[in-house]
Amino acid sequence: MEKADKRCAIIRAALELVAEHGFHGAPMSMVSEKAGVAAGTIYCYFDNKETLIRETYGYLEGRIVETVTKRYPGDRPVRERFLHVGEALIRYYIGSPLEFRFLEQFHNSPFGVEHRRDKFMGKRGGCDIFRELFEEGVSQQVMKDLPLVILFALSFGPILTVVRDHVLGFVILDNTLISRTLEACWDGIRR
Amino acid sequence: MEKADKRCAIIRAALELVAEHGFHGAPMSMVSEKAGVAAGTIYCYFDNKETLIRETYGYLEGRIVETVTKRYPGDRPVRERFLHVGEALIRYYIGSPLEFRFLEQFHNSPFGVEHRRDKFMGKRGGCDIFRELFEEGVSQQVMKDLPLVILFALSFGPILTVVRDHVLGFVILDNTLISRTLEACWDGIRR
Amino acid sequence: MEKADKRCAIIRAALELVAEHGFHGAPMSMVSEKAGVAAGTIYCYFDNKETLIRETYGYLEGRIVETVTKRYPGDRPVRERFLHVGEALIRYYIGSPLEFRFLEQFHNSPFGVEHRRDKFMGKRGGCDIFRELFEEGVSQQVMKDLPLVILFALSFGPILTVVRDHVLGFVILDNTLISRTLEACWDGIRR
Amino acid sequence: MEKADKRCAIIRAALELVAEHGFHGAPMSMVSEKAGVAAGTIYCYFDNKETLIRETYGYLEGRIVETVTKRYPGDRPVRERFLHVGEALIRYYIGSPLEFRFLEQFHNSPFGVEHRRDKFMGKRGGCDIFRELFEEGVSQQVMKDLPLVILFALSFGPILTVVRDHVLGFVILDNTLISRTLEACWDGIRR
DNA sequence: GATGAATGAGCGTTCATTCAT
DNA sequence: CATGAATGAACGCTCATTCAT
Predict the structure, then answer these.
(1) Which whole number is the average pLDDT over D149-157?
(2) Which CATH code of 1.10.10.10, 3.30.70.120, 3.40.50.2300, 1.10.10.60 fits the domain covering D1-46?
(3) pLDDT at D1
(4) Is D43's CB less than 7 Å from nucleic acid strand E?
């Protein structure tokens, strides 16, 4: 196995175990077993468990930014861009339920809170696209004049909840349901 | 100390510790210490840690139902009832950040998922009032004709997100912001 | 087994294992096994390994002070008192080779150095009797006018070395050899 | 890099790390890093960690013998030779605190004890010069008629202790203090 | 019922050593 | 010879749970 492959296998294993059982239900011994490496090998690639989880998160974040950015209609109206972003997110999450569950676990851990705070406090990351979109929406007066945080909540709150319900089998998000849900979100934030 | 008091003290201690440090940051020994009882005593009242956490959750659920039900304007229009429920929830959570944090921890644990599944699959609980409200909203054609799960997501997704942001200090929810947020939620679900 | 007995058994086990194999050759698992308790039990009595070792040291220090103090001829000339102290030390160490080895290990560990520094810097302990003796010796002009540290080295350096040689079997310290060695030490420090 | 250079670099690295952090604070990986070689390379030169430490000790022993032997006034009286040896040792140790700390660590490890035993039991090493000096001192009746081991203890016990105190900063050994200390040692062993 | 000392499986992590390159 | 990624046994320590009192 190549070096990069091994690193990747460890991240995959961590991803899956954390997604299924949470941070504390994913002992390093289990991660190493699932990745097919020895216990100590993980520490050749990651300083400690926290770092492993953070880097797994970073890896996912990259993929999501990629997903959302791809074919982003930067020159279309705000509404259309919003719907694009929402749909990209929902489709990505639905297609990668493990990733989705991992992200939920991460966001709900101390790391996640800290991470959000950092990002919020200015150290931007891939979220700039969201910020720009909403700021433009407000300044063009097509969105309600609410704090960004509230607009985010009105948009991503339902999206994440809806995806969770889908992943848990409480609803099946087909194409029409996805678009109707996103339209409803738009109704929530639009003027 | 009375028997009921002791039981209650244990639940309070569990609540606070889980809220502050998460499930795995709340060892039984710490719970017993905070509750002012011996380590073994907890097991006189609860079979094991899982049960303790579940019952703590049940206790909170009861209080929330109480909160939402109190002064519930059952004879007023759907919109008004929705706003009442939403405001009751937000105010309760904001006034009881510990409870809110506990609930978030619980919902994001394996227990939480299982719990939601049980409730969804028919074993109702205190959520009937929500269900009734939304079913009526749909049948009266004042709400969008979407699955209940989606309407829940459009309503409680933003509410919980917004409260979390408040608790973490990313925004301050004053009276006007609360009502404007709830109006926006209503825009999302109304026809 | 009584509570105090268990604590004592753990200290004995730590003492023996550290004496024989050094700090790092005395894993907690071995200590617990030797003490006849479970691994976790040690932590009911001591915060961590460091504390266990420190308290073991403290226990020994107490016994030594006791030994040296007992029948200490406080009203006799400095020389006589010096010989009493030296002989008490040598006899104690020879009679308790395990204790002696432990002390050597301790003194040579980071803890030991720190401990000496603390004591030296003013936080006195049981060594006051030594300090008094030597200060009086200097002021009465029966000892050389050298810094206390040097006088200590001239006295305890040989004593500890000689005991070590005895314990390792390089020499057998009988009564005459003990007293002749102490006389030689006295020759080293006396005016 | 030459083969001999590499070997030497490894020994230097081991020496420094053991001196600073003790045997167990000097992992092979750290030694290799400090020496500027790969982890596995050490095993081209030394069978295992124990061997590395032993050979590091041997290297130091050689340097010390060299130091003590240089300008050794073999034709001068015993007293003078003793003072030369003592001063050479003290000056060497003080000038090479790392070496001194390593030696202390070594002497206090299981290896050290075994090493002393071997040497004592006949497999002589560089200590012959000491042995000769003291044997001559005794036979000329300028030294006390005590076993060699005791005379060694009376000489080197204080010397090592005094140097340790200097290295730890408890005293500063200037020229006069060195010579006065050595005179005191001589008082201890002389007739 | 209540206690809390005791348990021991399991955790995250380290590091001497190996071996394919 | 030299490399350094990989190994896995062993470490110190935690904590849910038990049970004699």
Answers:
(1) 95
(2) 1.10.10.60
(3) 65
(4) yes
